[in-house]
TrEMBL record:
<feature type="region of interest" description="Disordered">
    <location>
        <begin position="268"/>
        <end position="303"/>
    </location>
</feature>
<protein>
    <submittedName>
        <fullName>UPF0488 protein C8orf33-like</fullName>
    </submittedName>
</protein>
<dbReference type="Pfam" id="PF15393">
    <property type="entry name" value="DUF4615"/>
</dbReference>
<dbReference type="Pfam" id="PF01498">
    <property type="entry name" value="HTH_Tnp_Tc3_2"/>
</dbReference>
<dbReference type="InterPro" id="IPR002492">
    <property type="entry name" value="Transposase_Tc1-like"/>
</dbReference>
<dbReference type="InterPro" id="IPR029274">
    <property type="entry name" value="DUF4615"/>
</dbReference>
<dbReference type="GO" id="GO:0003677">
    <property type="term" value="F:DNA binding"/>
</dbReference>
<dbReference type="GO" id="GO:0006313">
    <property type="term" value="P:DNA transposition"/>
</dbReference>
<feature type="domain" description="Transposase Tc1-like">
    <location>
        <begin position="74"/>
        <end position="141"/>
    </location>
</feature>
<comment type="similarity">
    <text>Belongs to the UPF0488 family.</text>
</comment>
<dbReference type="GO" id="GO:0015074">
    <property type="term" value="P:DNA integration"/>
</dbReference>
<dbReference type="GO" id="GO:0005634">
    <property type="term" value="C:nucleus"/>
</dbReference>
<dbReference type="InterPro" id="IPR009057">
    <property type="entry name" value="Homeodomain-like_sf"/>
</dbReference>
Length: 330
């Protein structure tokens, strides 16, 4: 069992309690110093003439080989380059570490300076399928030059950035709405409401980085993406299937474009007379459309003067004597 080291503060406390007329056992129980040590300190105090405090005894054990200055130099080098090993540190400082062993440098790094050793994580070897996929990829894009890769990468990065930004904006808006709903209900305590207000201010601030916002969102809602999906699935409204019931009458009126010109004058004459009652679309009797078409065709023959006079248009011979000098064989 290791002995307790008596420091200068312990000696001062023992002498102060002794001057206050405390019993030695009480002094030992109060300070935690052994009774025999208290007796020796009081004896040395009387021997020195009650003017000086007894000096603590020198510590036993071998002194450290590395000074605090050397430890600071090692710490500065390792912090600037964390991948340094103990052997490299010893080789870089031959004047400071030539008298110590490699094991001593390792203990100084681990125990005195608090640097822990790490090594790279072991990665699994490629499987046969992964190798085949990589070979296919290389053969597929072996004709691409550097400029083509740059254009492809830039376009993909821009598109991915836009998609990620839109998705994050939607998630951020959902979290802010949840906070506002919680503040309106006022179910929590005053401290919880205050924390909610701070979180809302952090999320709505344009100066807060995205990483900080994501940390706040995860701390408040946990897996907020899963909750958003569940809420969307819960409140999703199925679109009703629209069925149009359009009733088309069986008997419809069709007027030919060619008959419109022939029926034009006939319609003007009918306008002067009293207009007959026009039945509804569904009440058109069967065969009425055919009768109207026939009437238009029949009236076209009754008024020949209204037809286009094609007889007046005739080709007249010219007085030009120019003729081609070749004959066309029949």
């Amino acid at each position: 069992m290791s002995r307790r080291v008596t420091t200068g503060d312990d000696i001062a406390a023992v002498i102060a309690l002794y001057k206050a007329n405390h019993v030695l056992r009480e002094i030992s129980a109060h300070t935690g110093v052994a009774l025999r040590v208290v007796q020796n300190l009081v004896k040395h105090f009387h021997d020195l003439g009650e003017d000086e405090l007894p000096a603590p005894l020198p510590k036993s054990g071998r002194p450290k080989l590395l000074s605090p200055r050397t430890l600071k130099v090692i710490s500065r080098q390792v912090r600037s380059n964390p991948s340094l090993t103990a052997r490299e540190v010893k080789e870089r400082n031959p004047r400071l570490l030539s008298h110590v062993s490699l094991r001593c440098v390792q203990q100084a790094l681990h125990d005195d300076l608090g640097f822990k050793s790490f090594h790279a994580r072991r990665k699994p070897l490629l499987t046969k399928r992964q190798k085949e996929n990589r070979v296919k990829f290389c053969k597929k894009y072996e004709v691409w030059d550097l400029e083509t890769w740059r254009i492809k990468d830039n376009s993909e990065v821009d598109q991915n950035e836009e998609d990620v930004f839109d998705k994050f904006s939607l998630e951020l808006r959902w979290c802010v709405e949840q906070i506002e709903l919680a503040l309106e209900k006022k179910k929590g305590s005053a401290k919880q409401d205050e924390n909610m207000q701070k979180s809302r201010k952090t999320l709505t601030s344009s100066k807060t980085p995205v990483i900080k916002k994501r940390q706040v969102m995860n701390a408040l809602f946990g897996d907020y993406r899963k909750k958003m999906a569940e809420e969307e699935k819960k409140f999703k409204i199925e679109q009703p299937k629209m069925k149009t019931k359009c009733v088309i009458p069986n008997n419809s009126i069709y007027i030919k474009k060619s008959s419109e010109q022939n029926c034009h004058l006939n319609q003007e004459e009918n306008m002067t007379q009293s207009p007959p009652e026009v039945p509804a679309v569904g009440d058109v009797p069967h065969g009425q459309s055919d009768l109207e078409t026939r009437s238009c065709d029949s009236t076209a023959g009754e008024h020949p003067a209204d037809n286009i006079k094609l007889d007046n248009f005739k080709f007249k011979p010219t007085e030009n004597s120019f003729r081609f000098n070749f004959s066309v064989s029949s």
